[in-house]
Amino acid sequence: MTITAIIVAGGRGERAGGELPKQYQRLLGKPVLAWSVEAFAMAGVDQIVVVRSAEHATLAESATHGRQVEFVSGGATRTASVRAGLAAAGSADIILIHDAARPGLTNAMVRALIDEIEGGASAAAPALPVADSLLRTDAEGHVEAEIDRAGAMRVQTPQAFRGDVLRAAYAAAGESAAFGDDIGVVRAFGVQAKVIPGDQRLMKITHPEDLAIVERILGGERIVCVGSGIDAHRFGPGAFVTLCGVQIPHDKGLVGHSDADAGWHALVDAILGALGEGDIGAHFPPSDPQWKGADSERFLRHAAELAAERGARISHVDITLVCERPKIGPHRESMRARTAEVLGLPLSRVSVKATTTERMGFLGREEGLAAQATATLDRPV
Ligand code: MG
């Protein structure tokens, strides 16, 4: 028996919000699409076909990096997309069709569906009973009718089929047919379908808030961690200093192996601290010539990427610059904006402020400049 899994990831997913379509957004550090690809790979299916839109070819490839996956371009409707996937599935004996927007797929569910088809069913799908009362309303929200929920089920994916039956049903359906799901396609062809107990974890990500709900279901416990960082650099000859990514004209420069951006260096250490990932020197050793004169944006992007890989979200960052001169006030808002841009955060979650030491100590004597930062991260335990 050859088994093919077709993952439908062709939708634009505009309802879920965010910059990326939902199937490419990160869920606990991993693209939504990768969860289903890995579940099918773990279950040992023979072939995985991902149907994606041509414009997202690069996103789909990077989301499934390291897995044996075939890609095809989707069509205008879900039915047309599955049809494209079927062409790639060839003569597979069993075909499972799954929505990429349901990342909570388990090995047990894949096996249960395959068992159902091997046991003689032509079509099978997981489904859950409906707990709420059902009403039909008009566009203004007026109730028009009560719907009897006795026997009503919420159908999920993957939906599993005998390959020959599914191919025949699609051939009979015609090119322009548009069905809500594949159980609908085979039933229109006169095939009996069966449901097996569904799984709450297979919830579909549809609305913006759904990603956080699925994250809670799949991710287990999360904690809030606060990391702190401190950095200082000595003044030397120069005509400007770089602080929080902004060049400020000054009668001195800052001496350092990289661009000596103490603000962002403190922030990188704060983010690494909240992740328990060591310090900036461990990630970018000063002994390594490739970091000589480096733009600290690379360090900050690295820390943000590491946080995303660990399934962490940066909730807030706060940077304090300590110096007598240059005056930070006129540049504060550009520093906030640059930091927010690099971290992909709204401005309201980035704070930059400044203070002096009332002319006391090395900072007061203007021998150098220091920065302190905290980063608050929401992350898996
Ligand atoms: Mg430094």
How does this structure look, described?
- The model has no long low-confidence stretch (mean pLDDT 93).
- It is elongated and about 85 Å long.
- The longest helix has 14 residues, at 262-275.
- The strands form 5 sheets. Strands 1, 4, 5, 6, 7, 10, 11 and 12 form an 8-stranded mixed beta sheet that branches. A 5-stranded mixed beta sheet has the order 16-13-19-17-18.
- With 381 residues, the protein is α/β, with parallel strands linked by helices.
- The protein folds into 2 domains: 3-217, Spore Coat Polysaccharide Biosynthesis Protein SpsA, Chain A; 222-380, 2-Layer Sandwich (60s Ribosomal Protein L30, Chain: A).
- It has 12 helices and 19 strands.
- The chain has helices at 32-43, 57-63, 78-89, 107-118, 163-173, 182-188, 210-219, 262-275, 280-283, 297-309, 332-343, 361-364; strands spanning 3-9, 26-27, 30-31, 47-52, 70-73, 94-99, 123-129, 134-137, 143-147, 153-155, 159-162, 194-197, 222-236, 240-243, 246-249, 253-255, 313-322, 350-355, 368-380.
- Strand 4 (47-52), helix 2 (57-63) and strand 5 form a beta-alpha-beta unit.
